[in-house]
DNA sequence: TTGACTTACTTCACATGTAAACGTATGCTA
DNA sequence: TAGCATACGTTTACATGTGAAGTAAGTCAA
């Protein structure tokens, strides 16, 4: 097919007639690698500085955003993890005294969790360092590259296909 | 759009004078989200079609690449996971009869693992579907966007700063 | 050769994640 | 109102990951 097939060195053909799935696979491996690196370094930083895992940090971030508290089911949806996982995380955060739990007044099956003052204070500090850590990690990357990385990642995300494409042209 | 720049409340101007770490954090969240989505869908596909987890698939991929076998320590380095983790993975893959293990002839502390014929056959099929799955996931993304996503991810990876920048200009 | 590191792997305790099976509370329908 | 389906959270069993401690084997200096 595709007519470059005759009389072309095999090595050059790869760029012209891409193997289906080749680029996508390389993209996935690159994503995996960057994710792994960042995850490990954020996780270890949070752990040594604040005794927090990234998982716990994510819970605190949700509760910081929803100051009126969240039911465990909502937490589980927002974090995109299973209920059983949230159950355990909440128990450990309760033990750390970073969150509080009370029964919902409307639904006796439901529990509402909130940040404690201690949890809020810890999250504020941790979020600050979290941000700085990422800024430092990428300090050598030009701002333009960061912008285009962000927009290209958005364009790959599943929800992007269903949204109305408001293409704000860069620059 | 954006012509709203005159007489703009400070709160809106944040795009002009970026908060340090803001973009980096958004980038991280976007990366996390895409990673999570792809990981879950690949993992669940491999599991239902082949009884494989992504972790096991990754081990098989390494052993497919190194046909002479790998010591557990090398496996652990290549996969960037701890030795304890590899230990368990190898035990489960042995139980699945997908890999074989023998003592190294040179070093009696060392074990060499290899694909069994069954493991190789399974990996071939799984790698094929893995590739197709990714291709399908991104079928609506223009090839140009995939290329730029790949190159921007590479530019964010830590090893990129130390490499000689051979910028193959696209197009 | 002996003694002291180092290396290779395993094991243990634990955190984080899933899926499935419960128990209990709600809510809807007949 | 009785009964059934659904929703909420917990528990269990398991996979995957870490870090630390333990065992056995290799290495090297004295």
CATH architecture of the domain at 54-143 in chain A: Orthogonal Bundle
Topology order of chain A in helix (H) and strand (E) letters: HHHEHHEEHHH
Main interface: chain pair and counts: A-B, 46 and 47 residues
What's the level 1 CATH class of the domain at 54-143 in chain A? Mainly Alpha
Strands in their spatial order, largest beta sheet of chain A = 1-3-2
Mean pLDDT of chain A: 87
C-alpha termini separation of chain A: 39 Å
What class would the helix/strand composition of chain A place it in? mainly alpha
CATH topology of the domain at 54-143 in chain A: Arc Repressor Mutant, subunit A
Low-confidence parts of chain A lasting 5 or more residues at pLDDT below 50?
161-171
Specify the helix fraction band of chain A. Answer: 55-70%
Number of helices of chain A: 8
Q: What oligomeric state do the depicted chains represent? A: homodimer
- The shape of chain A is globular
Q: What integer value in Å does the Rg of chain A equal?
A: 22 Å
For the report, how would you describe the main beta sheet of chain A?
A: 3 strands, antiparallel
What is the CATH superfamily label of the domain at 54-143 in chain A?
Winged helix-like DNA-binding domain superfamily/Winged helix DNA-binding domain
